[in-house]
Amino acid sequence: MHSLAGLVGLLASISLSRAAPSSQNISSDSYFYGDSPPVYPSPQGAGTGSWAASYKQAKEFVAQLTPEEKIILTAGVQETTSGCSGEIKAIPRLNFPGLCRGTDYVNSWPSGIHAGASWNKELVKQRGLHMGKEFHRKGVNVLLGPVVGPLGRIAEGGRNWEAFSNDPYHTGALVYETVQGLQSAGVGACTKHYIANEQETNRNPETENGQDIASVSSNIDDKTMHELYLWPFADAVRAGSASVMCSYQRINNSYGCQNSKTLNGLLKTELGFQGYVMTDWWAQHGGIAAANAGLDMVMPYTQMWGSNLTNAIANGTMQASRLDDMAIRIMASWYQMKQNTDFPAPGVGMPKDVNQPHKVVVGKSIDSRETLLQSAIEGHVLVKNTKQALPLQSPKLVSLFGYDAKGPDSLSPTSEFMNYSPPIQSNHTLYVGGGSGANSPAYFISPLDAFQQQAYEGGTSVLWDVHSQDPDVDPTTDACLVFINAYSTEGFDRPGLIDDSSDALITNVAGKCANTIVVIHNAGIRLVGDWIDHENITAVMFAHLPGQDAGKAVVDLLYGRHSPSGRLPYTVAKRAEDYGSLLHPSQPEGQYGLFPQDDFTEGVFIDYRAFDEQGITPQFEFGFGLSYTTFDYTGLTIGKVTQNDPYPAAAQIQEGGNPHLWDKILRISAEVKNIGSRDGDEVVQLYLGIPNGPVRQLRGFEKVGIRAGQTRKVMFSLNRRDLSTWDVGAQQWKLQSGTYKVYVGRSSRDLPLSGQFSI
Ligand SMILES: *[C@@H]1O[C@H](CO)[C@@H](O)[C@H](O)[C@H]1NC(C)=O
Ligand SMILES: *[C@@H]1O[C@H](CO)[C@@H](O)[C@H](O)[C@H]1NC(C)=O
Ligand SMILES: *[C@@H]1O[C@H](CO)[C@@H](O)[C@H](O)[C@H]1NC(C)=O
Ligand SMILES: *[C@@H]1O[C@H](CO)[C@@H](O)[C@H](O)[C@H]1NC(C)=O
Ligand SMILES: *[C@@H]1O[C@H](CO)[C@@H](O)[C@H](O)[C@H]1NC(C)=O
Ligand SMILES: *[C@@H]1O[C@H](CO)[C@@H](O)[C@H](O)[C@H]1NC(C)=O
Description:
Elements: H1 4-17, H2 52-63, H3 67-73, H4 112-118, H5 121-137, E1 142-143, H6 168-184, E2 188-194, E3 206-208, E4 211-213, E5 217-219, H7 222-229, H8 231-238, E6 243-246, E7 250-251, E8 254-255, H9 261-270, E9 276-279, H10 288-293, H11 307-314, H12 320-336, H13 369-378, E10 381-385, E11 397-401, H14 447-458, E12 461-465, E13 479-486, H15 500-510, E14 516-522, E15 537-542, H16 550-558, E16 597-599, H17 607-614, E17 631-638, E18 664-674, E19 680-689, E20 697-706, E21 711-719, E22 724-727, E23 732-735, E24 739-745, E25 753-758
Parallel strand pairs: 1-2, 2-6, 5-7, 5-16, 6-9, 11-12, 11-13, 13-14, 14-15
Antiparallel strand pairs: 3-4, 7-8, 10-15, 17-18, 18-21, 19-20, 19-24, 22-23, 24-25
Bound molecules: 2-acetamido-2-deoxy-beta-D-glucopyranose (NAG) (6 copies).
């Protein structure tokens, strides 16, 4: 380990010698990275809003603790006795049973990206609720999610699939529902990874060829921080997230778990966060410095805190009130989740000793089944459908191809970290990505299984060859289904956005089969430009990461029992180069090689904001997805902005920030008619062109079921934050004066209705 002082000195001199990056996208007058401004002291949780009663109980509890007992609450233990991942020891004297995270024998739910692709707020809330119920049954106090960082800035980012979307508004809306759903089951959320954790490459410090390489620094200006990366965290805090996980990498050269600006400043002051900040596993790099910067809990355990915290209080380097605040925040979250009453023993039924067989206490439940399947169905996005290929019309013979069509050869309750990231999961259907976000299904229904079941019930014949790269195609087959995937795992960024062998498999089949339908289980962006216009490729579906019901969900869609209603939560480019400098993660190169620097010079222009700004036509735009029916848009109405003072009135900060940011100040509505012959769900999307901002930004979406021939009126209620941009000088959200453009439609580029209003 370096001496910290030496390291800091070196960093400072390196930053000072750097030329200020130049970019028109950065509007702040002082654009100089390398520094994170000090924000001290750490704000004490005040018990605002709905937290008042929990804070009262927590303060009474903590008042009874010895300093050593307070310290117990602040870090995990090395030897776990419960099988929990990240365990806080019990304090039996006061009937505190400890805390548990992570579990087994539950369901494999659709991943974040899949939930994002559903664009269904109510369904996402139900997903959270049912996951929470499973964790509660197993005595798990905290679920290590949801993920809102990464936000998908880097197209090849290895953990983008764990989060919902590449848009902050969309992510914010869905994290709000998830936290509410999850916590209504009495399980605390741990919204992560705070903040700007946008690549896996160099996320942690490492030693290579005898040289120490620091973790990458995400260098972000204040405006971009607020308008993109902090935005969904504000929604998570507003929803009451019990905890927030600080991230591995550095922000402006200061580690995520000891950055006083992001923890004390943005999170605990500006957003009024009442819960506790917990490290990612082994993300602690500072002892007392981290405590003073706002860190409350270390995982999985610590050698830097312990009795050093009381020593630091004794010698004056830390206030006693900081330790109290850590303990109060942790206990308040426990009371806030009502875990003091009727909570199962931590980790009930989990292996106490991995070598011993253990009693399986199943956390999954039958009444989750409908939500799980519906969530799996709605995250599929149909992007091509020609020659009436879909839905399948009572085919006599279908042929299945591709390594992704079949289930795994074996299932075990543990998920493993691989030490590399292959471009595909070549052995079976990809139903979840790799790393700590992986899960172990209660069972698994593959596409092949589901097609067999369909054949059994519906009288179709099925042929398959899931191994050949150039399979024979029976000339009498009605449809050829090709299943491929795009893998991604924590710890690595993806090697690319296509893989040649899957593309060759697709074109080999398409060369022989006039009705070739491609299904891609993709853990992130997958390019299709090499074959999308092939005349024999009649339909293409992005199937994302549906979890254990993958096969059943896709067959229900392909056979038309549901009309596809997913929409892309990211932009699919025609060519990888179209993502520009945001294609690959940044590497430790050149003069900053030992201190990798990642300057977010693009500002807010990521994903569709960048494509719009640069006038690049994507293959499939953000928000795009087909249905089996067609919707017509009319009747745009734009109300009057009811408050137009540029800044929100001063008020006591509540969770999420100034409560007036959530004041509803504008109504917009539109009428949507289902003009096709089938019932279907439409995702009605509202984009605003805010003066001085990107061409368009998502500021509303509603998923509505509309029967064939019927019309529905869709209302959008916009709040002050939705209409504001971050004013760096005033450190406030500010309404712009000028003309705002309004667009309503089917995607970020298919916007049949438009209008405007002025402030
Ligand atoms: C923002 O950055 C992109 C990429 O560097 C550039 O193409 C674009 O012109 C910039 N926009 C403005 C307003 O300067
Ligand atoms: C990072 O540095 C930029 C440029 O000085 C500044 O605008 C921003 O507030 C800093 N953010 C953090 C979290 O340190
Ligand atoms: C106190 O901190 C030092 C240096 O970080 C560490 O070596 C030591 O183990 C810590 N002591 C305890 C009791 O955690
Ligand atoms: C105070 O105690 C802490 C924890 O043991 C230690 O890291 C720090 O160096 C001490 N400071 C002084 C001024 O003694
Ligand atoms: C597929 O299975 C083989 C043989 O068990 C194994 O070596 C390989 O790592 C697996 N591939 C992936 C992507 O898991
Ligand atoms: C399309 O499929 C037919 C077989 O049905 C084949 O003869 C033809 O060459 C294919 N077209 C292309 C462009 O590969």
